Amino acid sequence: MKIPSKHIETAVDQIASLPGIGRRTALRLVLNLMNRSEEEIRDFADAFVQMKQHTKKCSVCGNISDMPICSICSSDKRDHSTICVVEDIRDVLAIESTDSYKGVYHVLGGIISPMDGIGPSDLNINALIERVQTKSVNEVIFALSATMEGDTTNFFIFKKLKEFNVAISTLSRGVAIGSELQYADEITLSRSLLNRQPFEV
Amino acid sequence: MKIPSKHIETAVDQIASLPGIGRRTALRLVLNLMNRSEEEIRDFADAFVQMKQHTKKCSVCGNISDMPICSICSSDKRDHSTICVVEDIRDVLAIESTDSYKGVYHVLGGIISPMDGIGPSDLNINALIERVQTKSVNEVIFALSATMEGDTTNFFIFKKLKEFNVAISTLSRGVAIGSELQYADEITLSRSLLNRQPFEV
Q: Per the confidence metrics, is the pTM higher than 0.80?
C-alpha cells in the first residue's frame, strides 16, 4: 500500500503507532480526519498536547488526575485504611463503576513481566510499601490480572508487605455471574470448586 | 465510565470521534499516548495539522496529493484516455497495488446515499463530466461498491455520460478467486452464472 502523500504517510504512521491499530485502519481514520476543517484538526491535535501538559499522576496513589492529589485520595468519604492495588487507571474506572468499593487505590502502572522487560523497579511498588509503612493501613487488596504475571506481582508485593501488620486479600476467582458452566475453563472451574462458599438464601 | 481528568476526557472524546472507535478503546489508546514523552506527543499532534495544511486534492482527479496535480495524473506513462471512477483514495491504492491498471482515476469522494444525506452535488461528479467532455477520453470504468448506493451512483453518472462518445464499463462481478462455491451468496452466484465466460485453457 503506497500512499501518494508523505504528509498522509506520516499521519498514518502516527495513528498506526497506537496499540492494536494496523496501517489499513490507520489510513481509514486519517482519511476521516482529512475531511474535517482545519479548526477541527487543530482541536484534535491540541487535545493530546493539553492532556500531556496538564495531566499528572496523583502523588499518593499514581492514578491520573488534573490535581497533584486525585479526587479519590483527597476525599474524606473514602476509607483510607483499605488500599486496592491495580495495574492501571482503567482498573480504577472499572471498580469505581461497580459503586461497591469505598477504599482507596494504588496504581502500579503495569505488572511484573520479564518477557516485556518490566521488573519491580519499573512499577510504583516502593510508594505502596511506604504508604503501608507510614499511614494507618488495615488491608491491602490485590486486584491484578489473573495471569502468571499478575500472580508473580502479587507474590512479590506480598513478600514485601508481610512484615507489616496488615491484612492482605485478593479478588475471589470463580465462574463469572451470568455465564454457563459448560463454557467455564477447567482451571477456573476447579478453583471455584475448591473455594466453594456456604449457600445463602 | 467516569474519567477523573477533564483533559483525558477531551482526548478520549477526540479519539472516539474517529469512525469505529468506541470510548473504551479510545481510553486505551489515550493511556498509551499518556505514557509517551512530551516531544513524542507533539510529533503525534503535529502530524495531523501538517497533513491538513499541506495535503491537497488533485485538481484533475480528486485524489489526495502533496502537489496540485497528483503523480498519476501528471505521469506520461499512464493512459489518460481511460478513467476509472472510484469512491475514495483507498480504492485507488487497492487498484494500484494490483499493478494491472495503466489508466487514470477519478475519485468521487463518496457515493450517492440519500440515507446519509449524500446527493450527486456533494460528489466530484461534474468534474468527471467535464473531463469526458473536454479531454479525449475513450473509456470510463465504474469501480464503485457493489451495493445499491454504488449502483445508483453508476446509473446517475451513466445517464450524464451516455450522450458522449465514450465506452462505459464496470468491474466484473462473480465468485471471488480462491473462494469456495458453497459460501458464495445467492445473488453473486446467480449473477456469475448469467455472466458466464467462455472457458479458456
A: no
Contacts of A142 (CB under 8 A, 6+ apart): A85, A154, A157, A158, A168, A169, A170, A171
Q: Which three cell numbers stand for residue B98?
A: 494490483
Across the interface, of B5, B47, B63, the residue whose CB is closest to A10 is B47
User: Which superfamily does CATH assign the domain made up of B6-54 to?
Assistant: RecR Domain 1 (1.10.8.420)
Give the whole-angstrom CA distance, residue A40 versus residue B66.
21
- Give tens-digit pLDDT for A116-135: 898 988 899 999 999 998 88
Decide if A102 contacts A79 (C-beta within 8 A). yes
Angstrom distance (rounded) from CA A43 to CA A35: 14
Q: Compare CB distances from A49 to B29, B41, B64 and report the shortest one's residue.
A: B41
Residue count of chain A: 201
Q: Count CB pairs under 8 A between chains A and B.
A: 160
Query: Domain A64-170 is of which CATH architecture?
Result: 3-Layer(aba) Sandwich (3.40)
Helices A38-54 and B38-54, axial angle in degrees (round to 10):
180
The count of residues in chain B is: 201
pLDDT in the model for residue B1: 65
> Any idea where the domains of chain A sit in the sequence?
6-54, 64-170
* Grid coordinates belonging to A185: 475453563
* Among the four given CATH numbers 3.30.1490.20, 3.20.20.70, 3.40.1360.10, 3.90.850.10, the one describing domain B57-170: 3.40.1360.10
State mean pLDDT over A33-39. 90
* Nearest chain B residue to A29, by CA: B18
Question: Under 8 Å CB-to-CB from B186, ≥6 apart: which residues?
Answer: none
Q: A2, B65: Cβ pair inside 8 Å?
A: no
Question: pLDDT digit string (tens) for A135-178?
Answer: 889 999 999 988 889 999 999 999 999 888 899 998 888 888 77
